[in-house]
Design goal:
The termini are close together. It is built from 5 helices and 7 strands. The chain has helices spanning 26-29, 55-72, 106-121, 126-134, 168-180; strands at residues 7-16, 23-24, 36-38, 45-47, 90-100, 143-148, 154-158. 33% of the residues lie in helices and 22% in strands. The protein is α+β, with helices and mostly antiparallel strands.
């Protein structure tokens, strides 16, 4: 992929709640828009950083979104287990979509499956992987090419499981692989 390609990301995660209610529901806390929002299916939150052609900047953008979220909703931090990008409120990553500022197909998708989807799913519990795949989520080669950016250009969304952004190191490694494909 070209070094000029812009990369974006929307990562889905759930936040642990009190024992009587093991998860906080995003639609009760945040709007569906903004840098952190409800992903539209009830429970998961979604982080939506600004895109960048620079992978380190994209990683910083994810961290900044999560830090702003904690500043706005400090009560979620009390129910913390572990949060991707080293902020301690997220119970688990449950999905994530990698956005490309251009259309992807063929060999790009095969390489993404081989270098991202398969190995990074190993960062997740096997029961989680089996359930998600059984539900039809994050199958290999799961790409949507029907998106357009603000300038009207084609863009793609690659949809692996969320294991690739479970830690800052995994996310940075994953996105560097994506950029170098």
């Amino acid at each position: 992929m070209s070094n000029e390609t812009t990369f974006g990301f929307d990562g889905e995660f759930v936040i642990g709640g009190p024992e009587e209610r093991p998860y906080l529901h995003s639609d009760m806390c945040v709007a569906s828009r903004g840098n952190i929002g409800a992903d539209g299916s009830g429970r998961p939150f979604e982080v939506r950083p600004f895109p960048s052609a620079d992978i380190n900047q994209l990683c910083d953008n994810v961290r900044n979104c999560l830090e702003l979220f904690i500043a706005e909703f400090p009560e979620v931090n009390k129910h913390a287990d572990v949060l991707p990008i080293s902020i301690s409120c997220v119970r688990e990553t449950c999905g994530g979509h990698i956005h490309f500022g251009r259309r992807i197909s063929g060999l790009d998708i095969s390489l993404l499956d081989s270098l991202v989807a398969i190995p990074f799913s190993l960062a997740l519990p096997k029961s989680h992987v089996h359930k998600r795949m059984h539900d039809g989520y994050a199958a290999l080669s799961d790409v949507r090419n029907d998106h357009r950016n603000d300038e009207g250009n084609d863009r793609s969304e690659y949809r692996p499981m969320g294991g690739f952004w479970g830690t800052p190191e995994l996310f940075t490694a994953c996105m560097q692989l994506v950029k170098d494909i």
